[in-house]
């Protein structure tokens, strides 16, 4: 055993060139416990020796010289271990725990497997979204990292990478010709950060990690995407749908009906796309949804929506869905692709399907409805609270729904948005009759109904 100042030039290089006949230990003269072990083959390894809280002598390996340890790096680690011993910790036990610790990828697997049991109130659709965020944005960049070693700075760098689009890709979904386009950007990063943070908080509660470094990182600011339709744009969208269904046979009638019902109710896309006839109470003008983003709720239907559903019921099939899939037994799908076609044909840019919900609220606000009643109309409040109004003749929630849907209905029947019959200019040929629904696919009842609610709603307006 030798004791000296350990340097690369004077200590390690000569021993690597001329290895000792047997294993040699050299201890640092200035940093207590820091040493280097040299084998007969010339392999040089840095070590640290100490006594734990019970007085037992222990030795822990820091790392092999040059991979990537330098003398200064190893000495600094030895100083850190000295500090840990002074605080009552055991460096060798900590290293063993780190070696056996779960990676971020393994924590993701456990969270998605055990989380639904630990969080029974969380919806299955929310877990599907969490799975997408974790597997598409967290695992590709941090999946192999030990979960206990992830720091605030690591999370910040990961977040910047997601914003820059480093996790963006195109992948197969498993469906026929199905692909998913995974994108980056501030909005995507903010959503992934929220899911990542929830997982790490769960892991902290399970004792898997010592803390939640994600909670210390602020989400990036994303541009707001809310977009509200004008009455002219509503009219243009409807004329585009009529043209695509009646004249060109490019759009499914069910898709057009879905979009119109979204406009007239302010519901979320999935609430309408998966709507079943058993949920509809036309006599009372209600949708009794057993499940939604906010749980079970009751939607108060305006007269235009009631009339539309009454017309659709006349031609219902044996399928339980109001809008059944073209093939198979499920509800309608592929609405996003259809919406993009309608939007392009109408020349209305930057409008998402979800913006139809926002637009319903904006029409209600324009009529002077209070934010409280708009919230009730859209189902932002508790379902029981909204349901209390349903039996009243002078129902303020229904008044808001009628006023908003009535304005949309007027826009749907208006010619003000007409811009000719070419692609991207409003759809229907100039001089086309005012109508909301395709005459090819809907009974005359809805034509009479549309005239009735437009006149009734705007009498004296």
From TrEMBL:
Positions of region (Disordered): 412-435
Keyword DNA-binding: yes
Protein name, entry field: Integrase
GO BP annotation list: DNA integration; DNA recombination
Record keywords, A-Z: DNA integration, DNA recombination, DNA-binding
Pfam family, one: Arm-DNA-bind_3
InterPro entries in alphabetical order: CB, DNA_brk_join_enz, Integrase-like_cat_sf, Integrase_catalytic, Integrase_DNA-bd_sf, Integrase_DNA_bind_dom, Integrase_recombinase_N, Phage_Integrase
Family annotation (Gene3D superfamilies): 1.10.150.130, Integrase, DNA-binding domain, Intergrase catalytic core
PANTHER family from the UniProt entry: PROPHAGE INTEGRASE (PTHR30629), PROPHAGE INTEGRASE INTS-RELATED (PTHR30629:SF2)
One function term, GO molecular function aspect: DNA binding
Ranges of residues in domain Tyr recombinase: 224-402
Family indicated by similarity: Belongs to the 'phage' integrase family.
Residue span, Core-binding (CB) domain: 102-204
């Amino acid at each position: 055993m030798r004791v000296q100042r350990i340097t690369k030039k004077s200590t390690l290089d000569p021993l690597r060139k001329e290895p000792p006949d047997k294993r040699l230990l050299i201890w640092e003269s200035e940093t207590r416990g820091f040493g280097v072990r040299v084998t007969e083959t010339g392999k040089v390894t840095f070590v640290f020796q100490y006594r734990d809280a019970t007085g037992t002598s222990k030795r822990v390996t820091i790392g092999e010289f040059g991979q990537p340890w330098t003398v200064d790096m190893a000495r600094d680690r030895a100083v850190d271990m000295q500090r840990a011993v002074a605080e009552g910790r055991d460096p060798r036990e900590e290293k063993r725990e780190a070696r056996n610790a779960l990676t971020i990828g393994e924590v993701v697997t456990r969270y998605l497997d055990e989380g639904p049991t630990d969080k029974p109130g969380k919806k299955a659709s929310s877990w599907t979204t969490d799975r997408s965020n974790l597997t598409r944005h967290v695992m590709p960049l941090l999946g192999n990292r030990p979960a206990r070693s992830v720091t605030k700075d690591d999370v910040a760098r990961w977040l910047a990478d997601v914003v820059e689009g480093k996790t963006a890709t195109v992948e197969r979904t498993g469906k026929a010709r199905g692909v998913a386009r995974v994108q980056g950007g501030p909005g995507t990063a903010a959503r992934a950060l929220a899911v990542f943070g929830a997982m790490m908080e769960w892991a902290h509660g399970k004792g898997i990690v010592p803390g939640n470094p994600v909670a210390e990182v602020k989400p990036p600011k994303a541009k707001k995407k809310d977009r509200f339709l004008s009455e002219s744009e509503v009219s243009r969208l409807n004329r585009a749908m009529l043209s695509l269904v009646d004249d060109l046979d490019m759009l499914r009638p069910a898709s057009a009906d879905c979009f119109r019902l979204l406009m007239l109710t302010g519901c979320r896309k999935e609430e309408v796309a998966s709507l079943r006839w058993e949920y509809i109470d036309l006599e009372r003008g209600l949708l009794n949804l057993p499940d939604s983003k906010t749980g079970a709720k009751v939607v108060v239907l305006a007269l235009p929506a009631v009339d539309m559903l009454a017309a659709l019921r006349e031609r219902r099939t044996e399928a339980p869905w109001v809008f059944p899939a073209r093939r198979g037994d499920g509800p309608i799908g592929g609405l996003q692709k259809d919406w993009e076609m309608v939007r392009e044909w109408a020349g209305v840019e930057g409008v998402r399907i979800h913006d139809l919900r926002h637009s319903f609220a904006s029409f209600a606000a324009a009529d002077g409805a209070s934010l409280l009643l708009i919230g009730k109309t859209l189902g932002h409040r508790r379902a029981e609270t909204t349901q209390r109004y349903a039996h009243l003749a002078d129902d303020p929630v229904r008044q808001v729904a009628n006023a908003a849907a009535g304005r949309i209905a007027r826009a749907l029947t208006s010619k003000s948005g007409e811009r000719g019959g070419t692609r991207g200019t409003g759809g229907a040929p100039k001089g086309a009759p005012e109508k909301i629904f395709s005459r090819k696919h809907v009974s005359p009842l809805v034509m009479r109904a549309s005239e009735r609610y437009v006149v009734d709603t705007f009498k004296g307006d």
